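Let us work through a complete example step by step.
Step 1: write down the sequence.
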Amino acid sequence: MKKALFPLVLLAAGVIISAVVTSWVVTAEARKEGGFKAGLLGMQMEFMCNNSILRPITDHEGRADLQKYLNEVNTLMSWYFKNPASKFWAEYPDENDPESIIKEKRRLASEEGKSQRAAKGNLPIWEECFELVKGAYDQLKKGTYNALASDFQGSVRLDVHEVKRDGNKLKWVVLVWGGIGPVVYAGWNMKLFKSPTAEEKAEYDKAVAKAKRRGMEPEMKDPATLHFGESASASGHPVLPNFEGSEYIVDFPPRVQLNYFYTPTCPPDAEKVEMLFKIKSRAISGDDQHMEFKFMLPADGGWKGSWDGVQKIEAASDYGQ
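Step 2: predict the structure and record it as tokens.
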């Protein structure tokens, strides 16, 4: 009887030891995961406590100062990656891979299982989001972040990061920093300007002189201030679903949304383009803050193309997530 029980005792002891070891491993993994999340939150909070200084950067006349802002951004990023981010990754060196999140999404799309179909359908969107984030991330980490224009309202700053030709459309990449609650895009408006002809200028000068003799304001508007072409978004949505950079790269600065809009190209004779982006964000009181960011930019030669019959251009259809 004792001989029969001995193997059972050994088996039971093996089960208990295995359970204890498994428990230790699970507890250690849970502790590691909890520490990673806590450390990540601490790193993000440390950045958030410092990045508010980027909002109200202006020149001596109170206008948004792009170069000063870019200098401050790159100085802040140098501090961020050399201090809180560096300390965080020193604790978790095995996790320090900018592609870790997109690799996991690729795995989900490739492996058999319940979630494979949805993941496979969303993978092109995830890849595009990642590429957009990675492009800005590389600049931020090197301290070479750049933008064509930037302005702020309250706690929100919008950067026009880059504009490039994509077929017969322009791709406007924007970064939106800050915002208390969800930042929602509400569309764009584009106006095109060119210098008035000699005849238009002469006619305006004549109207101004005539009004001056009568002690009145001229009824005719300065042709240099009048746009000759206009286009607006048919919907408020950008091309990609709303997301933050830190959803794709762990140490991307928190509370930064990236996206892009498509607009028509500029007509061949355009000299300046005025772009108005509309967004809204939640205020502390719970009310929506409606904000408009307007930029006047020279019409780059690479932005020009056919504008025949253009009135509006739709953003891409909403992506499913």
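Step 3: interpret the result. Confidence is low (pLDDT under 50) at residues 5-13, 19-26, 312-321.
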